[in-house]
Design goal:
- The chain is mainly beta.
- The chain has one domain (about 5-175, about 265-335): Beta-galactosidase, Chain A, domain 5.
- It is built from 1 helix and 26 strands.
- A 9-stranded antiparallel sheet has the order 10-11-12-13-26-22-21-16-19, with no helix packed on it. It has a 5-stranded antiparallel sheet with strand order 18-17-20-23-24.
- Strand 2 and strand 3 form a beta hairpin.
- It starts with a strand and ends with a strand.
- The mean pLDDT is about 95.
Length: about 325
């Protein structure tokens, strides 16, 4: 297992391992210049090989859920591995988070330090058609931006949806809760789900609901409201439809911790973002410094295509064909306020 450390001239540091292409550490300053790791995870690299909630992992070949693990592509029915209440989640039983990638340090000209990781996913792996060549590049620049670039090609028609599953706590790295973090999501619609977290196919307005984060709002302000969608996930665990038209890199979300002053912007080329408020954390996982990660001690902002898109014709397509290249970019930009 290899560990890659990226640094910039401001003292910001990111660490990546080649197992699951995990982002395992991200140290950024608060308003007083004190650096701290804002990611949940483990001190020991080997702990990432044990069952855990995808801390900092690259998940794929398809992030999020596919109903029943089934989809039809070009008239052919496919059955994927099922690992979540009879559904397919984050690539299946042995997804991209549980394999070794090939890493190569890179020094992009004028762009800071980086590492590129590649993985060859064979035809039939977890039930997916086509041999897929996947590449993920992490770059840390002097603007205090961590950029994640995704690329993939295939030799047969297939589906793909890659993301990073980092858990953030801008205050204390997971010792406390994230309910006082102030969140903005640049999306006025979301995709409601059933009780198994599978989209119903509806694209609903957030207006007048607890899902309206179009203006910066504390995460805990409405999380206890009597709402069916909140009850299904014991909090937030939904996909927001971003208010964008094109594939261009644009602002998807911001998170502010008033106590430390840390401010994070999330920019992406993706059409959606899954906001998860750490509702399944229950103290059973011992993380960095022996911290038992408790209920809502971390949040995820997973830039993505929508869950179950292969079975929802009205959702943006996740099909990748031979001769085409899958490309997506997400940037986490850090500052203080």
């Amino acid at each position: 297992m290899d560990l890659y450390t990226l640094t910039n001239t401001n003292g910001v540091e990111a660490r990546v391992i080649n197992y699951g292409a995990h982002l395992v550490s991200l140290k950024v300053p608060d308003r007083n210049g004190r650096f701290a790791d804002v990611l949940l995870g483990f001190d020991r690299r080997e702990d990432y090989e044990q069952p855990n909630p995808y801390f900092g992992a690259i998940v794929g070949r398809y992030a999020n859920r596919i109903a029943g693990g089934r989809f039809t592509l070009n008239g052919i029915n496919y059955q994927l591995a099922t690992n979540d209440r009879g559904n397919h989640l984050h690539g299946g039983i042995r997804g991209f988070d549980k394999v070794f990638w090939q890493g190569q340090p890179s020094e992009p000209a004028g762009r800071g330090s980086g590492v590129t990781l590649t993985y060859l996913s064979q035809d039939g792996e977890e039930g997916y058609p086509g041999t897929l060549k996947a590449k993920v590049t992490y770059v840390l620049n002097d603007k205090n931006e961590l950029e994640i670039r995704y690329q993939a090609t295939t030799d047969q028609p297939t589906i793909i949806n890659l993301t990073n599953h980092a858990y953030f706590n801008l205050a204390d790295g997971g010792q406390g809760t994230i309910v006082d973090h102030v969140l903005m999501i640049a999306g006025s619609r979301f995709t409601p789900t059933d009780k198994a977290s599978i989209p119903t196919g509806e694209i609903a307005s957030v207006h007048g609901t607890p899902f309206d984060f179009t203006k910066p709002t504390p995460i805990g302000a409405r999380i206890q409201e009597d709402n069916e969608q909140l009850a299904y996930g014991r909090g937030y665990d939904q996909n927001w439809v971003l208010d964008k038209i094109s594939h261009e890199l644009s602002l998807a979300a911001t998170v502010h911790d008033p106590a430390s002053g840390r401010f994070m912007e999330v920019l992406t080329t993706q059409p959606g973002i899954q906001f998860y408020s750490g509702n399944q954390l229950d103290g059973s996982v011992l993380g960095k410094h022996g911290i038992a990660y408790q209920f809502r001690s971390g949040l995820c902002l997973e830039t993505q295509h929508f869950p179950d898109s292969p079975n929802q014709p009205s959702f943006p397509s996740t099909v990748l064909n031979p001769g085409s290249t899958y490309t997506q970019t997400t940037v986490y930009r850090f500052s203080v306020r």
